[in-house]
Amino acid sequence: MKTNHHLPQPQYGVQLIFNETARSRLLCSATCSQNPSCRIFDYDSSSRRCRLFEADLTNGAIIATASQTSIVGSAILSASLYASMYNQSCSACQENRYQTCSSTTNTCQCPGNSYWNGSMCPLQLFENANCSQIDACRSDLNLGCIINSYGGFTQCLR
């Protein structure tokens, strides 16, 4: 996890997945690490507020803040965290935050609201975002990656 003095600004309210108090920044960070959906957290030491977000820089932003008591942390993701276990037997991804065991295929797959792009599991995209494959859009929000008249994927739409 990487930290700095900024605030996350998710694009959509659905991206806030946890908003509780925590005794320390370390415990807030640990809570994020234990939640496979968490990509960004913020912690304010004066209020002890810990917020976890299912957001990253593709579907949210980090904004500067004057507060010296607030800090943001983010999960650092790389293809090496995914490639060795994707589509492998479930024993390869037990107790792993980056991939989950699919009960239908009995293989390691991307967790909810993310998709396999050939090298890792980025978060699925929201409405009007540019997309390049069928499963890149938030299906829980009834979005699909629409095919244009040339047969190429273009945009996440309803």
Automatic annotation (TrEMBL):
Q: Name one Pfam family in it.
A: PAN_1
Q: Which domain of life is it from?
A: Eukaryota
InterPro entries on file: Pan_app (IPR003609)
Q: Which residues cross the membrane?
A: none
Apple domain sequence ranges = 1-76
Q: Which Gene3D superfamilies match?
A: Hepatocyte Growth Factor
Q: What is this protein called?
A: Apple domain-containing protein
Where does this protein come from, organism-wise? Rotaria socialis
